[in-house]
Amino acid sequence: MNYLKKCLCLVFLTGVMGGCEVVSPVYRQSTGGYLGADITPKNTWSVRGDLANPAAAADEDISTAARSNYGYTGAELIIDLKKVCLFQTVILEHGTAKSGHCREVDISTGVDGKNFSKKHVAPGTRRFTIISLPAPTLARYVRIKAVSPGRGRWYIAEVYIQ
User: Fold this and answer.
1) What is the pTM of this model?
2) Could you confirm whether domain 31-161 is CATH 2.60.120.260?
């Protein structure tokens, strides 16, 4: 976090002194077309996990979805971003399933795909579940895990990371 503060301070001081063009921005528009952190393009991600058709969670098509069985406590998706990325928000789109969300979802991150650090547990919501992490996070792997199941099967039509 100190590194981020130093970068922001440098950007501010450089801007005040008239030399902003020399310092690269900390955040820039990502390949995905939304403003936010620097994230690799979705077509480079690989997705694995306990849900059927896990790759559908990152295929840019909400008519397809990764889906769980019933009683899916502990079911997870692991996304490999292919390089370390900076982000603070994970958004799950559940598609057209009316009860396609879990009651609680855990977001953990890692750099090696084996060891994960829990970042945040949040309630699941209908249609979209938006999870804002407590701080900007540097990670290559994102694990999305069902802590408490909802009424129906868990559907993840798309994952957005920003």
Assistant:
1) 0.75
2) yes
